[in-house]
Amino acid sequence: MSIEILQSLKYQKQNRFEFYFLDNADIKYRVLTVNLPRESFEYTKTKAGENTLTGITFPDTVTLSILETKDFYLEDFVESWRDVFYDKDTRIFKSLPVENADKKTGVLVLFDEKGLINRTYIYNNLSLVGLSESTFDYGNPDLLSWELVMKVEDVSRI
Fold first, then answer.
1. What is the tens place of the pLDDT at every residue in 87-99?
2. Which of 6, 60, 132, 155 is the most exposed place for a label (fewest CB within 10 A)?
3. pLDDT band (50, 70, 90) for residue 60
4. Does residue 102 contact residue 80 with C-beta atoms inside 8 Å?
5. In Å, how far are 36, 95, 142 from 57, measured between CA atoms?
6. Residue burial 98-134, b: 16+ Cβ < 10 Å; e: rest
7. Which domains does the chain have, with CATH numbers?
8. Backbone φ and ψ of 82, nearest 5°
């Protein structure tokens, strides 16, 4: 491929995205990474050697890598989300006052090179799976971040 062709192609030069929850937009400036789940197709090889489409698998988990603040905002956010459906002291799941009260809606916005919205994805009915463990290490100067894992029922592009 010639250098002229390479220069004419437009690639993303940097990450241009925001992810936030509809009930908590403050988190969007802390998200380092988010995965955009995609379906995968399943094939079976016939006796004749041909691949035949036999099914589709929809992803069911989403992982966010999020920077923690000095006052542990993210950990508190996850604990308050958990407290909606689980009593940590008694180790008993609560009955929900409203259907889907334990679920959240996430929004992923992708921007073009001018900073304008290019695409938006809605993550419907996110359920808390957990927050990763973290290692505290004096020899590691990296900022503290957590992996927040959630189940997702559907991701739609609007």
1. 999 999 988 777 8
2. 6
3. confident
4. no
5. 15, 31, 36
6. eeeebbbebbbebeeeeeeeeeebebeebbbeebeee
7. 14-43+51-157 (2.30.110)
8. -60, -40
